[in-house]
Design goal:
heterodimer, A: mainly alpha, ABC transporter involved in vitamin B12 uptake, BtuC, globular, B: mainly alpha, two-stranded antiparallel sheet, 15 helices, 4 strands, 70% helix
């Protein structure tokens, strides 16, 4: 084994890239859960976004349109979940699982003709001046635009939840939907919008996997990333900035594991591949989760 | 304007009619999907739902139904205990894999000795393997309050990697000159789960029926079944009734893990025959659909597993005869679960048509 082959600067830079899909999916789910809805279908929305983004990129010839298509695909699939749980009042846990199973099937069907095609390379956008700083520059400021977009969305969600009236309403709906309803807020409308935002973010995360990380379409390419995103939301105690920390932690474990594989550590590949999942469990155990939104996973029915 | 009004008690009619309606709606939407894929919708629906049972080759397909349905019944029966009590074990796939690995390891350890004790030992090992894997999320939930959905699911990915390392390493057939996969247990008389291969009968089928009867009696006649149902419907009331919630979580997890482990063992010692990288066919996830389709009721699960097995077999026929993509069947199964959850609203709510007014 040759540990000197691992370059710490490259490692940290690729950590940011590895964390981005999980971060995108998790920030969407965070908003959904703050609105009091538990959508366990992140994995299904992610893989649907991955295939939609890939198809849109290949057929329309533009990565930007590809990511837009991925967000649209994820949001539409999330809307199915929204209608089932909010209008038809189905069990959120069961519906979320159904969404994952359905999404995996849908993605496999849609992606049939696209196996083996390579996605066009998305150029990096080095931030002027800042990317020239030694060490920090290549780690933080020399990435493709989606990495920055992920961080921007986290900041935007933090601002939205903490400083805007709409964010306050969303949190009220999540904490106590009966009280929010009594105050005249449209609980179901707020939740449907949150669910669609969550789907769009998961779709973006999926597209990042199929267009940048891999970058091609293979069946089951999300490999549990959606479930890890769900775990990170719990880890973050439903707070946006801690989400960033969580995503980088898991990105770190993933990248380190891949680097150790490449460096030829004397442990079978299969055991190293377990690392991100085991790390997730470990973190779920060690972190005392904060208080979940009061109405999380409770069905809302305005009965009189 | 359409309004939903909560029923005081679930409708008896819709409890039975809703799953049937869901199946019909799935067939209609499935037909549309097949038409969109360029297949004749009527021929495809007939191939999937009719041909396995009543076509001229049904003598071959009917035993296949037993083989596919047995693991689904075993796993879904186990899951139904937890789902009724609000314990969400989503990682049955992992427990299934671990049951198969542990059971097969015991069998392979005795190779080539012949003894009547080998297979019972394998059954115990398989059940223990699945049980132990399910105890991890169960224990973590009881002791640390972690979410059992996420932990059990993460363990599926861990189990899949473990399976890969076993198929390529410890359990690899030493006589196979480097090919991955273990020795074929179905060709090892003391370790095979087959009773009559031609009739599709293996010990998993027998255990599936035993599990259905056991679950039916437990849930409807035994105090434990009452506690399970009570905990799901009202955790607070259950605590006043003297239910120990932690113990209940562990027992529910244990039952579902052990049954999933058994399903894995019977599969690996019979229909699949050997431990290979991808011997698991996603039964652990399909069983979730089966459990809900059967309304978490043992007899319902039996019927639902039959229907699911039908879509598997029919799907395979449609795949080879009509060139229907395999993913279309997976989509059909997902659709079925969606419709089931959607029509469930009729069981608990009454639909009222009223004039539009301010609500």
């Amino acid at each position: 084994m040759d540990l000197s082959a691992i370059n710490p600067i490259l490692l940290l830079a690729s950590l940011m890239v590895a964390a981005t899909p999980i971060l995108l999916a998790a920030i969407g789910e965070l908003v959904v859960e703050r609105a009091g809805v538990l959508n366990l279908g992140v994995e299904g929305m992610m893989i649907t976004g991955a295939v939609c983004g890939f198809i849109a990129t290949i057929t329309l010839g533009s990565s930007v349109l590809g990511f837009a298509g991925a967000a649209l695909g994820g949001a539409l699939l999330a809307l199915v979940f929204g209608i089932l749980t909010q209008v038809l009042l189905s069990n959120q846990v069961a519906t979320g699982l159904a969404l994952t199973l359905f999404g995996l099937g849908l993605a496999a069907l849609l992606g049939q003709g696209y196996i083996g095609i390579k996605a066009p390379v998305i150029p990096k956008w080095p931030v002027p001046v800042l990317s020239d700083i030694p060490v920090i520059g290549p780690i933080l400021f020399n990435h493709d635009p989606v990495v920055y977009l992920g961080i921007l969305i986290v900041a935007a969600v933090w601002f939205f939840l903490s400083f805007t009236r709409a964010g306050l309403i969303l949190r009220a709906v999540g904490e106590n939907h009966d009280a929010a309803h009594a105050l005249g807020y449209h609980v179901i409308r707020v939740r449907l919008l949150a669910i669609m935002f969550g789907g769009a973010c998961a779709g973006l995360g999926g597209a990042y996997l199929s267009l940048v990380r891999v970058p091609q379409w293979t069946e089951g390419l999300t490999a549990g990333a959606g479930w890890i995103a769900l775990a990170i939301v719990v880890f973050a105690s439903w707070r946006p900035w801690r989400l960033l920390l969580g995503a980088y932690l898991f990105g770190g474990v993933t990248v380190l594991q891949l680097n150790l594989q490449a460096a030829g550590l004397a442990v079978p590949v299969a055991y190293l591949s377990m690392a991100p999942y085991l790390a997730t469990i470990l973190v779920l155990v060690m972190m005392r989760a904060g208080r979940a939104p009061g109405s999380l996973a409770q069905p809302f029915h305005a009965s009189r | 304007m359409i309004r939903l009004e909560k029923r005081t008690a679930p409708s008896r009619f819709w409890t039975y009619a809703a799953p049937l309606l869901a199946v019909v709606l799935t067939m209609v939407c499935g037909a549309l999907l097949f038409a969109a894929l360029g297949n004749d919708p009527f021929v495809t629906i007939r191939t999937i739902f009719w041909d396995p049972l009543f076509s001229e080759f049904s003598w071959y397909y009917r035993p296949q139904l037993l083989i596919k349905a047995a693991p689904l019944v075993l796993i879904a029966i186990g899951l139904s205990f937890g789902f009724r009590a609000g314990v969400w074990n989503i990682g049955a796939e992992g427990q299934y894999i671990l049951g198969a690995i542990c059971g097969a390891a015991v069998g392979l350890a005795f190779y080539p000795t012949e003894s009547v004790f080998i297979f019972p030992l394998m059954i115990v090992a398989g059940a223990l393997g699945g049980w132990a894997w399910a105890m991890i999320p169960g224990f973590l939930r009881v002791r640390f309050g972690t979410n059992e959905i996420l932990v059990s699911l993460m363990l599926v990915y861990v189990a899949q990697n473990l399976l890969a390392s076993m198929a390529l390493g410890a359990l690899r057939n030493p006589d196979a000159s480097g090919f991955p996969g273990s020795r074929n247990l179905a060709r090892y008389p003391s370790a095979t789960s087959w009773i009559n291969e031609g009739a599709g009968l293996h010990w998993g089928v027998v255990f599936a029926f035993i599990a259905v009867i056991f679950a039916y009696i437990t849930l409807s006649r035994h105090i434990f079944g009452f506690h399970v149902r009570l905990s799901g419907q009202s955790p607070r009331a259950a605590r006043f009734a003297g239910v120990n919630p932690g113990l209940l979580v562990l027992i529910c997890m244990g039952i579902s893990g052990a049954l999933a482990g058994l399903a894995g063992l019977f599969e690996v010692a019979g229909p699949s025959g050997l431990i290979s990288i991808d011997f698991n066919a996603g039964y652990g996830f399909t069983a979730i659909i089966v459990a809900f389709l059967g309304r978490l009721h043992p007899v319902g699960i039996l019927l639902a597993a039959g229907l699911m097995a039908l879509t598997y077999i029919g799907g395979e026929i449609a795949q080879s005869n009509l060139r229907l993509p395999a993913a279309a069947i997976q989509l059909l199964q997902g659709m079925l679960l969606f419709f089931l959850l959607a029509v469930d609203v009729l069981t608990h709510y009454r639909v009222r048509f009223t004039s539009r007014r301010v609500v």
